[in-house]
Specification:
The protein is an all-alpha fold and 50 residues long. The chain is built from two helices and no strands.
């Protein structure tokens, strides 16, 4: 996955996270937070490789 794709994925997950927070869907909040963290780790590793 390219660096810009990862940035877009993080933005999309952030939108989903915000919606889950507004809807009091606590399980989904945790899920999206973990997903964002995972994508950020991949993004950092791609940034170092470039």
């Amino acid at each position: 996955m390219e660096y810009t794709d990862l940035e877009g994925r993080i933005r999309r997950l952030q939108c989903l996270l915000d919606a889950a927070k507004e809807g009091n869907q606590f399980g989904m909040v945790v899920y999206y937070q973990v997903m964002i963290e995972d994508v950020e780790v991949v993004k950092k590793s791609k940034g170092k490789a470039a």
